[in-house]
Every structure is written in C-alpha cells, then in structure tokens.
Amino acid sequence: MTAAPLTSAEIEAIRAQFPILRREVNGHPLTYLDSAATAQKPGVVIDAESAFLRTANAAVNRGAHTLAGEATEAYEDARGTVARFLGVAENEVVFTSHATEALNLIASSLGTASLGRGAGSHADAAPLALREGDEIVVTELEHHANLIPWQELAARTGATLRYVPVLDDGSLDLEAAARIIGERTRLLAVTHVSNVTGAITPLDALVPLARAVGALVVLDACQSAPHLPLRPRELDVDLAVFSGHKLYGPTGIGVLYGRAELLDAMPPFLYGGSMITTVTMERAEYLPAPQRFEPGSPRLSQAVGLAAAIRFLEGVGLDRIAATEHELAAHLLGGLASVPGVRVLGGVDPAGRVALASIVVDGVHAHDAGQVLDEVGIAARVGHHCAQPLHRRLGATASLRLSAGVHTTVAELDRAIEAVASIRPFFGLDGGAAS
Amino acid sequence: MSGLEQLYQQIILDHSKHPHGVGLEPGEVTSHQRNPVCGDEVTLALRWDAAGERVTEVAWEGSGCSISQASASLLATLAEESAAEGEAWRPEELRALIDEFREALRSRGSIALDEERFGDAAALSGVSRFVARVKCAMLAWVAAEDLLSRRAGV
Ligand SMILES: Cc1ncc(COP(=O)(O)O)c(C=O)c1O
Asked: Which structural domain, as residue segments, surrounds residue A306?
C-alpha cells in the first residue's frame, strides 16, 4: 500500500464533519462501530439533499420548465459522479433503491431472458437465458441479498445453484471453487468483502475461473465500496452493486454497474413510464440502459446526496482510507485476540481484511454482549447480519459485529475492546482485562 | 443500579444459567416462537389438569439470549408456584396475566410488574426500558398466548 494513513489530526477534522458524533448515548460519547450496517452522514451529504429539496426539486425527464431542467441536470451529474468514482461510463450506471434491489434486478432480468423475452429492439437477450443443466455459483459467505435472488432464479429456470464452501478459518475454499466453477457455470455471484469476517475476497483467484468458462461475474461491493478503491473494470467483473447508505450517502439509493453491451442486452426489471420510446396498446419499445432500468419517478435528492458522499470520500482519498483501515483492522483484531473467551469469526490475521470483526463471546449470547457495549455508548450490531449460512458454518447462531468507518479512531477501538473484555465478567464468567 | 444491572438482575442471570421447566414430551402440543433478528427460539407447551381446565405446568425448550431464556424459565416457575398454591391458572387468568405482562413491558419503564402477581418474574420489569429487548422477554409468553388461542379454536 503506497498511500499514507490518515493522521490523527485529519481524522479529527473528518469527525467534526459528522454531526451525529457529537451526541451522547447513555451518558457516553457515541462510539459508532456499526458502519457496515449503515454509515453515518457527513454534513455535506445532509446539506446536499436539503439544498436540492430547497432549491431545485422538480420531476426529472418529464418537463420543459427551468426547474425540471435543473433537477434533471443534478440527477445526471450524480450519475456522472458515480461513473467517475467507479472508472466506468455514465450509461453503465443504473440507480436502484439499494443493493438488494440491484441484485434482484439482475436476477429478475435474467429470469425474463430465460422466458424468451428480450429487451425490445436492442441486442438480443437470448444468450443470457438460463435453462436446466446450467449452473449459478455463489459462495457460502454471501449476505442473504446475494443468495436468495439466485435461489429463486435457479428455481424459476431449472438451473442449479451451487456454492463455493467456506473453510473452518472462514476463508473460501479456492480448491473447491476450481472444481465447482466449470463448463456448466453461467454466472458467478460473489461478495467483494464479507460483511461478517471483513475478509477481502481473492477475486484474482475466482474471477479467472469464471472467465475461462464464459460465465458472467456479479460483484456485491456493498462492504468494499466504503473501504477500498472500487474499479469493476480492473476487477474484470460484468456487474457490480452497492448501497448508498453504507457509503455515507442517503438510504433509498443504490447503484448497479453493468458493462454497456451487457446492460443493453438485458430485459427490463420494472416496467412503466420513463423507460420507453414508443408505446401502443399492444407493446412497448424500451430505451437503452440506464433509462431502461429506471422506470417511474427516480430518487432525486438521494442521488444528489450520494454524489455528495462520493465527493466527500474522494476528498479524503479512498487509497488513504484503505491504508488507515489496514491499521485499524490490525489494531482491532489484535485487541480482540487478547481478550479471553472471545472468538473472532474468520480469525485474527489482519492480512486482507477491512476494519470489521464479528465475535462470539463464550457463554454469552450476542444480544446480551451487545447490551454491555450499548450501556457505554458503543453502537455495534448483534445477530446473524443476514448471513445465516456462514454463521451456521462457523458454528455460531449470532455474533457481535464491530465495524469501523472513516471517522473511527484507535481510541474508540480501544474503548470497544475494553468493553468487550468486560462482557464475561459482567455475566459472572472468567475474563481478563484486555492487555 | 445502572441500567444494565436493572436489566440483568441476579434473578434473571440465575434463571438463564439454570432454567426451570425445560423438557418437552414427544408429541406434545407446542408453540414455536422465533425472534428472526437474533435467532432466539422458544418452543413451549402448556400442561393441563385431568379436566383440561387449568394449567398445571409450563414446559419449554429453547436457545437464545439470557432475557428470552430467563423469561421462559420465570413463566414456568410462576405456573408451578400458582399450581402449588392451589391456584393453577384457568385460560382466562393466564390470558389476563399475559396481557398485563405485555402492557408493562411495552410501557418504557412507566409500569412495573406487580410482585404479588408475578413473583420472581417481576424482575423482568427492567426490560421495559430496553425497547430492543422487549421481544426477547415476550417470546415465551407469546407462545403461551398462541396455545391458548389455538385451544379456544380461534
Ligand atoms: C455484503 C452485503 N450485501 C448486500 C447488502 C444489502 O444491502 P441493502 O440492505 O442496502 O440492500 C448488505 C447490507 O446489509 C451487505 O453487507
């Protein structure tokens, strides 16, 4: 990693931009370690949304008055900002409600192609059709959002869903992957970073396997976009999704990136206004991507807010965020490793991890463990984090997840580690202080 | 007492570590309740006297956080104590108790459970300040309510 980590003065300046960090919880300063669930918003994002609503709100693509023109421009500017962020073309960026919708869009579109329906007058969707004998491959560590749409697509088309298993240490079994991804594989859907272990997926090992057999690659970038520079083309994936709200942007907005030729071949997901050219009582012709996938009134202030979030992150520098996170990950995992009776899912080796860790406290249910942290103002997530199969595989029903953001300090991690060390003693079990 | 100590009173910790009333019979009529957020589970049975008029025992099995497990254990204890005092619950009595329990737990700390009526289970009053945990404490009681409704044929 060449970029320098953020200095503590820089992190303090970043913290000052997040109004919510000024509040207290249960008499303690808020220590927000739940950015993986949803990130807090810097003032610039809140202001951008608000300013749009105060000064430029109008229906986009649907009117000729001045305000409508300005709103349309703001919306398309937002698309341009996302495109620049990803290093892709503007017509390769589709706005959705969230990553979940983006993944459903892909699965539903391929399902439609499998019914023999196309994309209208544009490139033929037939090569995208799935049928019996075809295989869709996911991994055992996916978020439910990147699992269930594929289960359903398989059920609807007769294709088979297979998965790359997880090893005891929480990593993907790459040897098995080489056997599973083969001639029959038509699509590989995989997360970029696990929302449970924080491990960065070895895409350089997986993607070539899919490429070799001509399978499409779908990347769930929800947990990578806030932490690492995201370049779908360099990663050689066909489609990628992420959610705005995890990227310091608003809720209600997500992004689907798709290779232009591919998007243009994909049938629509939702049908209605703003996605058509000519409509008769019998049929309709569809616009090319991205409009084909954005029927109905779009999410305006949310898109504008997301663009502000991206500019904020670009201002800090994703490479510097990644360098900082690397240090935070090492600090977090090292600290947790020193607490007796605590197991970190995916182990404590910080190589290839973002600053996110899920723990199981021996003898204490995650829900109870989380309560001890909440008492001192630490916000952490408890539960299965929408990854039941991975928890089952690692022998846990639920875990407690600590996830850092761009505003997280080492001192906050130390507070959290200390609080984790107090959990077992609180419940009358042996425990030692973190060293 | 800190908020946390109010939530995790010693009675609750004891019941979660050494639960009462655990063990179901094969084929028994049960209600299975789950909290999808955290995976807490309780499967519960009501055991009736020979005439089928009064609840003599509450039996259950489950897994999950200490609040959900202690609450099931405390419900079983309360049933056992009521029966031992010759006051085994009629369905309408149990239903009233469940309603009262729910009202207190949803009161955000403004209503405390009556110790006369709830015995040790009154220790669960502290849960009502923790909105996210009310569901955990309700799990066993919802299972009992479900069984009463099914029995009444509704
Ligand atoms: C890896 C991963 N994929 C998908 C999602 C779904 O994101 P959203 O709920 O914003 O659609 C999440 C967030 O919970 C996630 O962590």
From this structure: 48-314
